[in-house]
C-alpha cells in the first residue's frame, strides 16, 4: 500500500513559511533530507517554462515558489524538496534562463549582472562563473551562468549576443581566448575548451 502523500497540494502544504514569502529567497534545501517521494508530473523546458501535467504553469509566483525549493542532487536529477518530501521532476537542460543583462563599468572593472525570467539576479564573478558548452554534433554554443549552489541559468541567445559585443581577447594558459570580464574575473565565451 502506498502511503505517500499526493502531489502537488501536499508539497505546497509542507512548505515552511519562510519559503512562501519572498519567492526569490531559496529555502535551505541543502539541510533537508527526506525520503524519496516519487516522480512528479512536472518539467522545466529549455526556455525556462515550468509545466505541470502537460500544461504550462501560468502563475509566475507559483513557478517562483517551486524554484525556491529546487535542488540538483549528486545523482544528476532535479528534485523539489521540503522538510518532509522529495519529488523528482524533469528538466530539459537547466532550470533557469537569464533573459536580461545589466553592465556596469568597462574593461577589467566591468560587472555583469544577469536576471532570470523568474526574477532572480546574480553578479557574474568567482562564485557565479560564466561557462559555455559547445554541442559536439552541431557546434552550437550553450552559455550558462551559475545561479546558486549547482543550479545554472542558460543565457538567452539575445543576452549572449550582448556578451559577444563586450568580448575582448585575453591570454588564458598561454592561449588567446575571447571572453568577458566581470567582477575582476575573465570568462572565456568562445567555448573552445568545453564540449558536450
Describe this structure in words.
The chain is mainly beta. It folds into 2 domains: 9-91, duf1285 like fold, CATH 3.10.540.10; 96-188, duf1285 protein fold. It has 3 helices and 15 strands. It has helices at 9-13, 60-67, 157-166, and strands at 38-44, 50-52, 55-56, 70-72, 78-81, 86-91, 96-104, 111-116, 121-123, 130-134, 141-148, 151-155, 168-172, 175-182, 185-188. A hairpin with a 5-residue loop joins β1 and β2.
Topology readout:
Elements: H1 9-13, E1 38-44, E2 50-52, E3 55-56, H2 60-67, E4 70-72, E5 78-81, E6 86-91, E7 96-104, E8 111-116, E9 121-123, E10 130-134, E11 141-148, E12 151-155, H3 157-166, E13 168-172, E14 175-182, E15 185-188
Parallel strand pairs: 1-6, 7-12
Antiparallel strand pairs: 1-2, 2-3, 4-5, 5-6, 7-8, 8-9, 10-11, 11-12, 13-14, 14-15
Number of strands: 15
Strand content: 35-45%
The side-by-side strand order for the widest beta sheet comes to 3-2-1-6-5-4
CATH architectural grouping of the largest domain = Roll
The biggest beta sheet is recorded as:
6 strands, mixed
- N-to-C series of helices and strands: HEEEHEEEEEEEEEHEEE
Helix content: 10-25%
Structural class call reads mainly beta
The coarse overall form would be: elongated
Radius of gyration: 18 Å
Pfam families: DUF1285_C, DUF1285_N
Region (Disordered): 1-28
Biased composition (Low complexity): 10-19
Domain DUF1285: 27-94, 95-189
Amino acid at each position: 500500500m502506498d502511503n505517500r502523500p499526493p502531489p502537488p497540494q501536499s508539497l505546497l502544504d509542507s512548505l515552511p513559511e519562510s519559503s512562501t514569502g519572498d519567492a526569490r529567497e531559496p529555502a535551505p534545501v541543502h539541510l533537508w533530507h527526506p525520503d524519496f517521494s516519487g516522480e512528479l508530473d512536472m518539467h522545466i523546458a529549455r526556455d525556462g517554462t515550468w509545466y505541470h501535467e502537460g500544461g504550462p504553469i501560468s502563475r509566475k509566483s507559483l513557478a517562483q515558489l517551486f524554484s525556491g525549493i529546487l535542488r540538483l542532487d549528486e545523482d544528476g536529477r532535479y528534485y523539489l524538496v521540503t522538510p518532509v518530501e522529495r519529488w523528482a521532476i524533469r528538466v530539459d537542460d537547466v532550470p533557469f534562463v537569464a533573459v536580461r543583462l545589466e553592465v556596469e563599468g568597462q574593461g577589467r572593472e566591468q560587472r555583469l549582472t544577469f536576471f532570470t525570467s523568474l526574477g532572480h539576479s546574480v553578479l557574474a564573478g568567482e562564485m557565479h562563473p560564466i561557462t559555455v558548452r559547445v554541442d559536439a554534433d552541431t557546434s552550437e554554443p550553450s552559455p550558462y551562468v551559475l545561479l546558486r549552489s549547482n543550479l545554472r541559468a542558460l543565457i538567452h541567445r539575445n543576452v549572449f549576443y550582448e556578451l559577444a559585443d563586450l568580448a575582448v581577447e585575453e591570454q588564458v594558459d598561454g592561449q588567446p581566448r575571447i571572453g568577458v570580464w566581470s567582477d575582476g574575473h575573465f570568462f572565456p565565451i568562445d567555448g573552445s575548451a568545453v564540449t558536450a
